[in-house]
Specification:
This protein is an alpha+beta fold. It is built from 10 helices and 7 strands. The protein has one domain: Hypothetical protein af1432 (Orthogonal Bundle). The chain has a 3-stranded antiparallel β-sheet. It has a two-stranded antiparallel sheet with strand order 4-7. A two-stranded antiparallel ribbon has the order 5-6. Strand 2 and strand 3 form a beta hairpin. The two termini are 37 Å apart. Mean pLDDT is 75; it is low at 1-21 and 24-74.
């Protein structure tokens, strides 16, 4: 598995940014918060850097716009998840509301399956972080209003692997990295990036695939209008046993 293009990592009171500069060299920036009682948000730096982004040779990012929280009592998991989510929401059409709706659906499915609390929490994390690899994809591709070309689609598919690399870089998210990698696998083995089939696909990834597809269909996207809920449900039904785990679809239909 290739290393992610760039990673953001936060320890208790230190913000570290690792990135690839315009010459291809790895650079590190670090800033310390004033103290543990410092509840303000600190900027990492006031200058610009060049980040190499999949699908676009160079992307300029103003680090002054990337603020990180150092609020007392904030858990590493919550803080790091919020950082990654903010980066994703600012760059793409993904929204916090989409992630929250996915979390409700996926955890409801998990609860119906009598999964333990830890697994339900993993489904919550996966709901908000499954597409985090898109921060490594060109905005030109992410927000393109028309159909992607074959080359653009191949680049877009890399977001699962980039997300895997990002999650592995954080100890608190490493255990869901495989789920992120596999969230676009299909029950019939025709998904990506590994072409896994049936129960070879992690259960969490199979659950999130249904929740993601349903909510995406009933939401407006740059390339299409939202479907009616009834139409989206029929589409999920139609793809049970091909795209989706049929048992998970059955549970989903009982909940909707």
């Amino acid at each position: 598995m290739k290393d992610s293009i760039y990673i953001y990592q936060v320890t208790s009171w230190i913000c570290i940014m690792a990135f690839i500069d315009s010459n291809g060299h790895k650079r590190i920036k670090r800033t310390d918060c004033k103290s543990e009682s410092d509840k303000a948000f600190r900027n990492v730096a006031n200058d610009n850097v060049i980040l190499n982004t999949a699908g676009e040779e160079n992307t300029r990012v103003n680090e002054n716009d990337l603020s990180y929280g150092c609020e007392t009592g904030r858990s590493h998991t919550e803080s790091n998840a919020n950082i990654l989510m903010t980066l994703l929401f600012e760059k793409s059409q993904e929204t916090e509301e989409h992630a929250e709706r996915m979390a409700v659906i996926s955890r409801s499915i998990g609860a119906k399956m009598n999964l333990p609390k830890k697994s339900l929490h993993d489904l919550f994390l996966l709901s908000i972080l499954h597409d985090i690899g898109k921060i490594g994809i060109s905005e030109r591709i992410l927000n393109k209003p028309g159909k992607l070309t074959k080359e653009e689609w191949m680049i877009m598919q890399k977001h699962s692997e980039i997300g895997y690399g990002l999650a592995k870089a954080y100890p608190e998210f490493a255990h869901i990295a495989e789920y992120i990698l596999c969230h676009h696998e299909r029950w019939d083995g025709k998904g990506y990036p590994l072409g896994l089939k049936g129960e070879q696909i992690p259960l969490a990834s199979r659950i999130i695939a249904v929740a993601d597809a349903y909510d995406a269909m009933i939401s407006d996207r740059v390339y299409r209008k939202a479907m009616k809920k009834e139409e989206a449900v029929e589409e999920i039904k139609k793809n049970a046993g091909t795209q989706f785990d049929p048992e998970i679809v059955k549970i989903f239909l009982e909940l909707i």
